[in-house]
Amino acid sequence: MAALKELLPDAKNSMSMYYDHANDPWFRQRFSSSEEENSTAIKAKPVPPYMKRAGFVPRKVEDFGDGGAFPEIHIAQYPLDMGRVKGAKPGPKILPVTVDAHGNLAYDTIVKQNENAKKIVYSQHKDLIPNILRNEEEGGDEGEEEEIQKEIEETMQETKAALEKIVNVRLSAAQPKNVPKQSSDSKYIKYEPSQQSAVFNSGAKERIIRMVEMPVDPLEPPKFKHKRVPKASGSPPVPVMHSPPRPVTVKDQQDWKIPPCISNWKNPKGYTIPLDKRLAADGREQKARKAVAMRSRVQKEKMMKEKERKEQELRALAAKVRSERTGTLAPSAAVPMSSDRNAMDTDIRVDYEPVRERERDMPKESKEEREERLQREKIREERRKERERERRLEAKDAAMGKKSKITRDRDRDISEKVALGMASTGAGRGGK
Hints:
Layout: H1 2-7, H2 25-30, H3 33-41, H4 131-138, H5 142-174, E1 186-191, E2 207-212, H6 250-255, H7 275-282, H8 284-326, H9 341-345, H10 348-361, H11 367-400, H12 405-410, H13 414-420, H14 423-431
Antiparallel strand pairs: 1-2
C-alpha cells in the first residue's frame, strides 16, 4: 500500500467518506431544538479499556457512550434505556439475606420472586431424592414421621369420601327407585295328610310346613301393560255441511272425460299406445270424427235421394200401365222424372196425393186390377214405414256415436265383405 501511495499523485480535493446530515437543510428543518438540546445534553463518559474494567458498573445511559452493553460485566444493562421497564419502582434491586430452618443461606430466594412467589420451586439437589431415602439419610424424628403419616391418612380419607360420593351417585341412577320391601314373616302350618300309610310321608301321621311370601324380583319386567286411553273430547265435532247430491247428466259425463296425456316424442316406459289414443292426444281424432260423420251424412242423403228417385220411377211406370189398360193418356204430371233437388227432398206422402186424385178421375177398374193396385199400395206403405224406421234408428245411432248399416257396410274391409258374401256388389257396380 505504501508503494502504491508513492506512485499515485497527491489528491487535489479532500472530502469526508461519510455524509454529514447536520448540514443538510432537509434534516435541519425537521430536527427540533429540544431534540438537539437533549442530544447535546448527553455526554459520554470515558469507558475504561478492555481487561481494565474491574469495578466498572454501567447503570446510566452515558456510561455506555455510543455503544452497546458489555458482555464481560454480569449485571442487567440497558444501553439507551432499551428493555428497561418504565413503570418499575426506583430503588435498589438488592435482596436481603435469608436463611432456612437449619440456619443455612437460602440462595433460591432470587428464583422465588415475582410470578414464582406463589409457586413451589425445586431448586436444590435434595428435592430430587425420594422422601423415604431422604428420611433414612437424615434419620428424622419420630414426631415428624407421625405428622406426615397423619397427613397422609387425612388425605386418604378425603379422597375416599369423594370417590364414594361419585360412585353412589352413579349407582343410584341405575337402581330402581321404588323397590318393594320383602316381608320376612313366616307361618308354620300343621296338618294331617289324607294318605295314612308307611309308604307315604315316611310313616308320619302329621306334617308341618313353613309358609313364606314369595320374593319379588325388582328387575323383573311388568306383567301387565297399561294402555293409554285417548282423552274424550270436551265438545262435539263441528258438522261439515255438504250440498245435496245431484244426478249426473250426460253433458257432465262428457265434460269429465279427460283425454290421456300422450306425447308424440317420449315414451320412457315403452307402452303400446293405440292409434286412436295417439290421435286424441293432438286433436286429430276429433277432426277425423267430424269428417267421417259428414261423409256418412252426405252418403246417406245420396242413398235416400236414390231411393226416392226409384220410387218415382216405379210410380210413373204404374201410372203408365194403368193408362194403357184403360186406353187414356197419362198426364205428364204423373211421371215426375225431374232431378231437381227440391222435389226430391219433399216428403213421400205429398207425392201420393196427386196420384189419388188422378185415380178418382180415371174410369172404374175391375176387381182384379183393384186388388193388384191395393197390393202395390200396401207394399209401398210398408216400404215407406221401413224407410222412416231406418231413418229414425240411424239418427238415434248417430247421436249415440254408433255406425249405421250403410256406413258399417261401406267401411268394412274387403276380407269381411268376402266372408259375408258382399264382395259381388262392388263388382256388379263396376260392370255397369
